[in-house]
Design goal:
With about 270 residues, the chain is α+β, with helices and mostly antiparallel strands. It is built from four helices and 14 strands.
Length: about 270
């Protein structure tokens, strides 16, 4: 066989190998590309739409319990890059009595994420007398609030605190120094761009009473569904209850005709 013929045969033998190599390269590229879009979709959803959260403490009992798994909507409240500190506030603002997830203004703890209820929005005048919360001089209707028996004489049940109440020793030093600047006629006035938060479990909640206001840029979102397997008053599990039942969490802000601040039915336990 001539040398020319041998070269032709060698070229024919090499062609399938090249095709196989090209096919393998295409498969790897398609795999990388598909994972890229999956990761991009995850970052978009996690950073702008919804997040999954687990409740770590009992400060919101019995509205949500320790270990509950919540779906938190960020839509319109906040957008950011997951696993980083970069984020920007968006156009929606929290409403009074709405449950909110936010970055607590506690730098010594690394700005942890808290879940509390909005009690005061910018401009509100807040006063707590005994176990009763007043906003702008009107008693706040709070069927969700949980208090220990005879807790009306606890320091946190009288706010703003007086020097005789003994509460100042429990405040963060920065808040203790600043608090009096926001008190007018015995009421705490919420400044622009700030919110006053409290837990539903009033005697077991480390909240704005102790560390101050939450800036608007710290707001992350609001829970829209509880995925935990617990029964509501109708006997259905939380997973079986309609979505609209959980959207009640968003509606704690509508003033009634009588001037009392009303709220929707709390999320079922």
């Amino acid at each position: 066989m001539s040398a020319e013929a041998e070269e032709v045969l060698a070229a024919d033998d090499a062609r399938p190998v090249k095709r196989d190599q090209a096919t393998m390269s295409d498969k790897v590229w398609r795999e990388v590309l598909s994972w890229f879009w999956v990761i991009l979709a995850f970052l978009f959803i996690e950073g702008t739409l919804v997040q999954a959260r687990v409740i770590p403490s009992g400060s919101m009992e019995k509205t949500v319990l320790i270990g509950d798994h919540l779906i938190v909507s960020r839509f319109g409240y906040d957008a950011g890059i997951p696993f980083t500190n970069w984020h920007v506030p968006l156009w929606r603002n929290p409403k009074r009595q709405q449950i909110i997830v936010f970055r607590a203004p506690l730098p010594e703890q690394g700005f942890p994420d808290f879940i509390k209820r909005v009690i005061g929005v910018p401009g509100d005048r807040i006063k707590i007398v005994g176990e009763q919360v007043y906003v702008d001089g009107t008693l706040l209707d709070e069927p969700y609030a949980v208090r220990l028996p005879n807790s009306f004489d606890q320091p946190g049940e009288k706010f703003p605190p007086t020097a005789e109440s003994g509460m100042y020793g429990r405040l963060r030093p920065e808040w203790a120094a600043e608090l009096s600047k926001h008190v007018v006629n015995g009421e705490l006035v919420v400044p622009p761009g700030e919110y006053f938060m409290m837990g539903d479990n009033r005697d077991n909640s480390y909240d704005s009473r102790y560390w101050g206001f939450v800036p608007r840029e710290n707001i992350i979102g609001t829970p829209v569904r509880n995925l935990s397997e617990r029964r509501d008053s109708s006997g259905r599990s939380a997973l079986e209850a309609p979505v609209s039942h959980f959207l009640d969490l968003l509606s704690y802000s509508v003033p009634s005709e009588s001037g009392l601040l009303s709220c929707a039915t709390p999320m079922p336990e």
